[in-house]
Amino acid sequence: AGLGEFRIRDLNDEINKLLREKGHWEFRIKELGGPDYARIGPKMLDHEGKEVPGNRGYKYFGAAKDLPGVRELFEKEPLPPPRKTRAELMKSIDAEYYGYRDEDDGILEPLEQEHEKKVLAEAVEKWKKEREARLARGEEEEEEEENIYAVNDDESDEEGGKEKEGEEGQPRFIAHVPVPSQQEIEQALVRRKKMELLQKYASETLMAQSEEAKTLLGL
């Protein structure tokens, strides 16, 4: 290793050159009918008894295995980390994962309030500019509000009544059955109350006399 990177590379190149020449002679011996030394010959081992590492037929001996760029060729890639199962992934999912605790630190809420005020101020400023522009064009300041109670003439209610516009613009209903007024309803309630009191406190003779008097008076 003390020879230096360039000297080590030159020596390793020289060894590989001799190995290629040796391979050519082994191939020529096989062509002449001799033994196949490439197959039956001893393997090249390093001082630790391991086969000499190589890349595309080029071998690295001794300190050449530790040269920059060479060590990475023979380093085994680390195994990928084991994938977590669905059950293991679900263990780390809680309310904070879905963002339900974002306001617990007291930082997000003031920022949201500040942004809300800014957006409202921009909206008000935009409305004022549009209003001034309409006034400058001579348009009406207030737009006519839509009458949400207006009903079309061709629409009818559930009871079969038809809605029409009155003289003052208010909706007017035409009913197909007689509808008593408020005064008639009050009179009917009073008469009913009187009858209940008479039935409770008056005798049968008095009730008969009262009915007879009503008949004579034409009531």
Automatic annotation (TrEMBL):
- Where are the compositionally biased (Acidic residues) regions? 139-158
**Residue ranges, compositional bias (Basic and acidic residues):** 159-170
Signal peptide start-end:
none
Question: One of this protein's GO BP terms?
Answer: generation of catalytic spliceosome for second transesterification step
Q: Subcellular localization, per the record?
A: Nucleus
Q: Where is this region: Disordered?
A: 130-180
GO cellular component terms, alphabetically, are:
nucleus
Name of a matching Pfam family: Isy1
**Do the record's keywords include Nucleus?**
yes
Q: Which UniProt keywords apply?
A: Nucleus
Record-stated family:
Belongs to the ISY1 family.
Protein name per the record: ISY1 factor
